[in-house]
Amino acid sequence: MNSSSTSRITVRLNESSGSKDKTLTEFQKFLTKLALICDTLKGEHGRTVTALVCLKGINGPEYIFTSNFRKLTELEETKLFLSSLLTFVGTNPDSLQPKPLQKQVLWRSLVFNFDKVDFYLTSLIDVLDDCIDNESRRGLIDSEPLKQLRYLQEKASFPRDITSSDNARNKFLRDCETLIKAIQAYKTGSFEKTLQNRTVEKNTDAADWCTLRHYLGRLHSYRQASEIIVNAATTWPDLFKNHRVDYINSAFKKRIPTPNLTDLNDIIPIALPGHEASDFESDISELRIHELDNIIHKQLQSWRIKTMVHCEVHLHNHLVQKGKTSSTDFWSGAMFIATSKPTCRLCHLYFNNPSNEFQVQTSHMNLYPKWRLPDIYEDQGADTKDSCEELLQDLIEQFQQDLILMLKQKEPKGKTHDSRTDSHSRVSTRVSYLGEGLRDTPHALLAERQGRFHGLSSPSSEDAEWRDLPEDIVHAI
After folding, report:
1. pLDDT tens for residues 312-333?
2. Over the stretch 176-225, which tens digit does the pLDDT of each residue have?
3. What is the pLDDT averaged over residues 366-393?
4. pLDDT for residue 83
5. Which helix (H) or strand (E) holds 247?
6. How many whole angstroms from its chain centre is CA 186?
7. Among 83, 93, 191, 331, which residue is least crowded by beta carbons within 10 Å?
8. What does the DSSP assignment read for 119-181?
9. At residue 379, what are phi and psi to the nearest 5 degrees?
């Protein structure tokens, strides 16, 4: 890797504070929806979250993807699914009109994403029950919102079986499609206004309505994906011809030591050099009412000692190492790394530098303390090491500024759900975010100041002697 490509290896964030897909170009939306339908699991520390780019191949488009932590067999399955879908849409073997073709794309996506869809349906029914109870307690027994909630509840209650027979599978898909159509209809009717009003109310019920909006949006996103993918085949037919789909292996997870600082009087001076706990006495006292100390203690008890390189950072690092840093390398000149969900806060900090021209979608700004930087190998040399250390310091300094703002304003830059469909943030959530930041930052700063460097990492083993400095950035948030 040459010095020009390794100097300050960060990229520019798509500059928009908007909360909708309209901040992306139509081509970027297409890539994002491809990434979305490749992200098949909910939970499991986001291990199937997927990043994707479209390069100019020799004979056609070359789609390259990776995921946070997928097994090789899972990457192969995802490659087969995506390649088959692109071929199906591009050839349209049954000469379907756009609407029937969209239906076929939707059904294929729902089957491949069955585990996640099943989770969304269960969660939707649960939160519909909560919202119905909330409306009933208001005494609004015959209200229009209550009728609409019950209608959605009815449409969401169906068997979820895609394995016992073709009939069972097709019934599940038809029922999903009917529910998603109901969600689509509600987005343009009075129910959307009800959602908007309920989610901004200053009571505990608002959280349930925000959660409802989130799961309705997640299910509806599969319809959006099918529409955008089929429309892309009309707008850019070459994207579906002579295409090649490939992946890069997920980065290994890394083991890290458990933080051992729990007292705020010890944490503050290390997390925020030049400050003492007394500098924030009134702010901390207010947060302690909401059990800040207890939250930090509980988070330490649940601390897991493995970290991962997020897929968008991993893919970016791969592209840089391969010299794919010019717009001429990318389809339509779009140096855009699509992701199945908005970028997290540390990815935002990683990408938030104008020294390069890559773009990512707007961040949801949530904190994931198991984040780490990519590995550095011996053949990458001193320039890469220096660049990584400089990036590490920039990340820590930016987060220190965020910590001070969070202490003063008690307002995190995150969401309860890591998508565009949620904007609700309660005091307890804010304190939890702040607890994570105060818990993890000192450990990173201690490592950074001690300048620990036990040798460059080896790519061959998860349990090898890993370079401490880059991986310790995980504790900066």
Report:
1. 999 999 999 999 999 999 999 9
2. 999 999 999 998 888 998 898 888 887 778 999 999 999 999 999 999 99
3. 79
4. 99
5. strand 244-247
6. 26
7. 93
8. HHHHHHHHHHHHHHHHHHHTT-TT-HHHHHHHHHHHHH-----SSS-HHHHHHHHHHHHHHHH
9. -75, 0
- Asked if 61 and 238 touch (Cβ cutoff 8 Å), the reply is yes
| C-beta separation of 169 from 160 below 8 A | no
Q: How far apart are CA 446 and CA 452, in angstroms?
A: 9
- Average pLDDT (330-353) is 92
Q: 441 and 396 in contact (C-beta within 8 Å)?
A: yes
Main-chain dihedrals φ then ψ at residue 49, nearest 5 degrees: -55, 135
Structure token digits, residue 459 = 């790519």
CB distance 245 to 50 below 8 Å: no
Which element (helix H / strand E) includes 314? helix 311-321
Alpha-carbon dihedral angle through residues 29, 35, 38, 39, given to the nearest 10 degrees: -110
52 phi/psi in degrees, rounded to 5: -150, 145
pTM given for the model: 0.83
Token representation of residue 442: 């000192």
- Mean predicted confidence (pLDDT) in 399-417: 70
